[in-house]
C-alpha cells in the first residue's frame, strides 16, 4: 500500500517520470541511468547504498549533480552510508520509516531538518509514536522498547484476511498499534531502530540488537556487507555471530578475522563484539528490497545445532 502510494501514485499525480533500474546490481549501470536521465529524487534501500559505497572510485566518472534528494527505506540506514553519501554525492540520505500496514510514512527526516546518523527521523506532524515495555507502558527516553503508533490512525490496516488472532496481536495494548520493531527515542524525538523483535539476540541475559553490531562491522575497511544473528549456545543461550562479505582486494585469513573482532570490541561494548565471524560470498537478501535475511542466516545455525554441531 505505502509503496504504491509513494512509488507510483504520488509521482503520477505530480506529473513526474518514474525510473526503475532492473537486472543484477552493477554500480556503473545505476550511475549511468541517473546521469543520463537527470534523476532528481532517488529512493532506494540501504543494501543498494552499501553496495554502491563498496564500489569506491566508480562514482567519479559520472555527473550526478541533478540529484536533489536521496531517500532510504526498507531497513535501518547505517551511519557509515550517510557519511559516504554526503562526501561522495554532496547530498544527505534521508531515512524514513513506514510499513505496508500503516499506509503512509510515519517517521521521517524532513528536508531542512537536522539528521542524526543512525536515526530514522522524527514522527511526521500529526503522528504520535511511543516506545512501550512488555506490559504496554511508555518507557523513559533513551530506553529501548516496542515501537508503537498511537491509534486511531486513518492509514492503518483494518484487518488481516482470515487471521483475526494475528490482527489482534498488533493491537493488544489499548490505543496503540505494535509495529514489531524495537527502537528507542531520544530527548529530541528522534527514533533509533534497534532490531525486529524476532531478530533480538539474548546472550547471557543481555539483549543485543544486531543493527548496531552490523553498522560497526561495515565501518571496517575490509567489509562490504554484514549480517548479525544470535547463534544457539549451551552456556550463554546465544552468542553474537557475524556473517560478512569482504571487499575486493581482501582475503579471508585468521589474522583478518581477529582484527575485525578487535575492531568491533574496541569501538562497542565488549559483549556486543561477535564471538564468531563467517565469511560468505554473498548474504541472503529479499528479491525486491534487498534486505538482508537474518532469519535465513539463523536457520543455517539452527540446522547445525540439529545436526549436533552446537558449540
Automatic annotation (TrEMBL):
It holds the Pfam family AMP-binding. Keywords: Acetylation, ATP-binding, Ligase, Nucleotide-binding. InterPro entries: AMP-bd_C, AMP-bd_C_sf, AMP-dep_synth/lig_dom, ANL_N_sf. Residues 212-291 form the AMP-binding enzyme C-terminal domain. One of its GO terms (cellular component) is cytosol. GO terms for molecular function: acetate-CoA ligase activity; ATP binding. One of its GO terms (biological process) is acetyl-CoA biosynthetic process. It is an enzyme of class 6 (ligase). Residues 4-161 form the AMP-dependent synthetase/ligase domain. The keyword Heme does not apply. Its EC number is 6.2.1.1. This is acetate--CoA ligase. It comes from Lacicoccus qingdaonensis.
Amino acid at each position: 500500500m505505502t509503496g504504491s502510494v509513494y512509488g507510483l501514485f504520488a509521482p503520477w499525480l505530480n506529473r513526474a517520470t518514474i525510473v526503475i533500474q532492473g537486472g543484477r546490481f552493477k554500480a556503473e549501470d545505476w550511475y549511468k541511468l541517473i546521469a543520463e536521465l537527470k534523476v532528481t529524487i532517488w529512493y532506494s534501500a540501504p543494501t543498494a547504498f552499501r553496495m554502491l559505497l563498496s564500489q569506491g572510485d566508480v562514482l567519479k566518472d559520472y555527473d550526478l549533480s541533478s540529484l536533489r534528494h536521496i531517500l532510504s527505506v526498507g531497513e535501518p540506514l547505517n551511519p557509515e552510508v550517510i557519511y559516504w553519501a554526503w562526501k561522495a554525492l554532496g547530498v544527505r540520505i534521508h531515512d524514513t520509516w513506514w510499513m505496508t500496514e500503516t499506509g503512509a510514512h510515519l517517521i521521517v527526516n524532513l528536508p531542512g531538518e537536522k539528521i542524526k546518523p543512525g536515526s530514522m527521523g522524527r514522527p511526521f506532524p500529526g503522528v504520535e509514536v511511543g516506545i512501550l515495555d512488555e506490559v504496554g507502558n511508555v518507557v523513559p527516553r533513551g530506553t529501548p522498547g516496542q515501537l508503537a503508533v498511537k491509534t486511531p490512525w486513518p492509514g492503518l490496516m483494518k484487518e488481516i484476511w482470515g487471521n483475526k488472532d494475528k490482527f489482534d496481536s498488533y493491537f493488544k495494548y489499548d490505543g496503540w498499534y505494535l509495529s514489531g520493531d524495537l527502537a528507542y527515542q531520544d530527548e529530541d524525538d528522534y527514533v533509533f531502530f534497534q532490531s525486529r523483535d524476532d531478530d533480538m539476540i539474548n546472550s547471557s541475559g543481555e539483549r543485543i540488537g544486531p543493527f548496531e553490531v552490523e553498522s560497526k562491522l561495515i565501518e571496517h575497511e575490509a567489509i562490504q556487507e554484514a549480517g548479525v544473528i544470535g547463534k544457539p549456545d549451551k552456556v550463554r543461550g546465544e552468542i553474537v555471530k557475524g556473517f560478512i562479505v569482504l571487499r575486493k582486494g581482501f582475503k579471508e585469513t585468521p589474522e583478518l578475522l581477529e582484527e575485525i573482532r578487535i575492531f568491533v570490541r574496541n569501538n562497542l561494548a565488549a559483549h556486543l563484539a561477535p564471538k564468531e565471524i563467517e565469511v560468505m560470498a554473498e548474504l541472503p537478501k529479499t528479491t525486491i528490497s534487498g534486505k538482508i535475511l537474518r532469519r535465513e542466516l539463523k536457520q543455517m545455525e539452527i540446522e547445525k545445532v540439529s545436526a549436533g554441531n552446537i558449540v
